[in-house]
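Q: How would the structure tokens look for this protein?
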Amino acid sequence: MTHKGLLDGKRALITGASSGIGAAAAAVFAREGAAVTLVARREDRLAALVGELRDKGHEAQYVVADVTRDHEVAEAVRRAVDTFGSLDVAFNNAGVGALQTPMHLMSDDLYDTIMDTNVRGVWNCMRHEISAMRAGGGSILNTSSTAGLVATPVAAPYIASKHAVIGLTKAAAAEYAADGIRVNVITPGSTHSDMIDELVRNVPGADAQLRDAALLQKIAQPEEIAEAAAWLCSSRASFVVGATVPVDGGWTVR
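A: Here is the predicted structure in token form.
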């Protein structure tokens, strides 16, 4: 894909950036002209990715942080602003999945882990990002899922968390549009990632089931989601606010 300058001059922060959609977004956002701050828990992957981006001439740094810890999120946003001068774009992509477990057998600990990462993590990020953007505006994109729009069995806390991300997005959009901050949410379908690839390896028939659920009859590559995210974060999407945007190969059409 050639450089189109969608994010020229923008300063972006991406969470969940060490793998999957987040890592793909790091490459796409940098290619499109953004200076990127990459946030995740796995330093080895972040360091390698930042090294690759810098070797290509891009501006990039990483911050090791857990989005469930508010003080670590605050430090990541501070570092992004201190290094690059401001924060214009944030892609809140960090999340965890659910084991294939019936609701009545799901543990409290697993419920708490999923909700803390997928909901509180977005909550923590948006509060600090909005504070950094209020003076000059910006664009925030959260990652939900098709599970934020429809329900499937044996994943109740995950489904609840992804519905909640859509609600948080709409609330923030309504509250901060007047400050020039656009907040939107993307709902990817099945996408090659650590979570999906593990599911395919461990659950017989999962690969065929995930492919059949999409009209396009495939599992997305992370770059396909990242390309849509880059557009939504760019000024080309200047009239898109409070939107829930499916990028799911037609999963939710049926």
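The mean pLDDT is 95.

The radius of gyration is 17 Å.

Upvote if useful.
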